[in-house]
Write a structure and sequence with these properties.
Elements: E1 5-6, H1 16-22, H2 32-49, E2 55-59, H3 62-73, E3 79-84, H4 87-98, E4 102-107, H5 116-125, E5 129-135, E6 137-138, E7 143-144, H6 147-154, E8 160-164, H7 176-179, E9 183-187, E10 198-203, H8 205-213, H9 223-231, H10 241-258, H11 260-280, E11 295-299, H12 306-317, E12 319-320, E13 332-336, H13 343-359, H14 368-378
Parallel strand pairs: 1-12, 3-4, 3-5, 5-8, 8-9
Antiparallel strand pairs: 2-10, 6-7, 9-10, 11-13
Helix pairs in contact: 1-10, 2-10, 11-14, 12-13, 13-14
Bound molecules: pyridoxal-5'-phosphate.
Pyridoxal-5'-phosphate (PLP) binds at residues 9-10, 61-63, 88, 135, 139, 164, 166-167, 187, 196.
């Protein structure tokens, strides 16, 4: 038997309580019974998004939420900016191009955050730009982009800021209303401790206004229709009933029991401990300057095949990390800290990394990274 630890940046571990809530016999969705659960989940999502606006629940993976932002707000030929500093930034560009938007890409070196000055320059040169698409946390490169700074630029202009917050919402403080984000998207399988299958999308008042003039076709992801139904505590189509029941449980854990601020601190601490471990092991970080608290990318020691290391840890030792994609393939591991992850997940992750590196021939000093992580985790030892 191998005991498994899921420590990749999505899907993330689902607490037993949430699994059990979802294992109950199905109830029908057009009932007062379901509507009560839906209403509770709806309220909790507003707290998670830190918004007064409605947060829509779509039966889709995160990408469905991303696509809905494009089709509900724009018209063919609209000019937009995409920040492309990794696989998910690239995805914004692909969706927007597919729907006939004119895309200006800001290419960002992998491992770096976008410079707000680069966005400002483009906006000054091209006042016709109507939207900026960015990731809050670019999971493929483990970078955090400066969304608050970008929002300062878009708020003053007729230009919407659309943020993929899929590994940010519920991980660290990203107050949608206070910062002036126009569209914020997340998915169920990351910080919200659920299986994949729900996308969550919230729009600012000016983004809702924009949906009225947007000409792109949409049917399943018609956000205005979805909002009308949400007001009646239901959904336009059959909702992912079990996932929404699980969501209510996960939100109770996160908001009522732990508290959002504590959850942010817990996840940030796992990230800090992991970075300290990498330093102690003389391993380089993928994003040393703007590291995401959701996941830490670490270059494996030279001479070690990262792909083989990740497969070995997963298949033989039961510890699942993510590897690298594209130009980072085989070169890095990504250890996740988001969702239902605590101190001993981090200790396990670092111990497994050390043993795996040793197994692949690198003279890793066993315990050095673990000790460095423990030092960070000691700072929050409970009374
Ligand atoms: C996981 C993730 C997505 C989601 O994609 P799906 O596979 O469609 O759920 C999108 N953006 C980021 C930044 C992610 O981490």
């Amino acid at each position: 038997m191998i005991k498994n630890y899921l420590l990749a940046p999505g899907p993330t571990p689902v607490p037993a309580r949430v699994l059990l809530a979802m294992a109950q016999p199905l109830i029908h969705h057009r009932t007062p019974q379901f509507s009560r659960i839906f209403a509770e989940a709806k309220q909790g999502l507003k707290e998670i998004f830190q918004t007064e606006q409605d947060v829509l629940m779509l039966a889709a993976s995160g990408t469905g939420g991303m696509e809905s932002a494009v089709t509900n707000l724009f018209s063919p030929g609209d000019e937009v900016v995409v920040v492309n500093g990794g696989k998910f930034g690239e995805r914004w560009g692909k969706i927007a191009s597919k729907y006939g938007l004119k895309v200006d890409e800001i290419k960002v070196e992998w491992g770096q955050a976008v410079r707000p000055a680069a966005i400002q320059k483009l906006l000054d040169e091209k006042p016709q730009i109507r939207g900026i698409f960015v990731q809050a946390s670019e999971t493929s490169t483990t970078v955090v982009h400066p969304v608050e700074e970008i929002a300062k630029l878009t708020r003053k202009r007729d230009c919407l800021l659309i943020v993929d917050g899929i590994t940010a919402v519920g991980v660290y403080d990203i107050p949608m209303d206070r910062w002036g984000i126009d569209v914020l998207v997340t998915g169920s399988q990351k910080a919200l401790m659920l299986p994949p299958g729900l996308a969550f999308v919230a729009l600012s008042p000016r983004a809702w206004e924009k949906t009225k003039s947007s000409k792109l076709p949409r049917f399943y992801f018609d956000l205005a229709k979805e909002r009308e139904n949400l007001a009646k505590d239901t959904t336009a189509w059959t909702p992912a009933i079990s996932l929404i029941i699980g969501l209510r449980e996960a939100l109770a854990m996160l908001l009522k029991e732990e508290g959002l601020t504590n959850a942010f601190a817990r996840q940030a601490r796992q990230a800090a401990a992991t970075r300290a471990a990498a330093n102690a092991l003389d391993l380089k970080l993928v994003a040393p300057d703007a590291p995401s608290p959701a996941t830490t990318g670490i270059f494996v020691a030279s001479g070690v095949d990262g792909g083989k290391l990740v497969a070995y840890l997963r298949d033989k030792m039961g510890v699942t990390f993510a590897g690298g994609q594209d130009q980072l393939k085989g070169k890095i591991v990504r250890i996740a800290h988001l969702g239902y992850v605590g101190a001993f997940d981090t200790v396990t992750a670092i111990a497994a990394l050390e043993m795996g590196l040793r197994k692949f021939g690198h003279p890793t000093p066993l315990g050095r990274g673990v000790g460095a992580a423990q030092e960070v985790l000691m700072s929050a030892l409970p009374e």
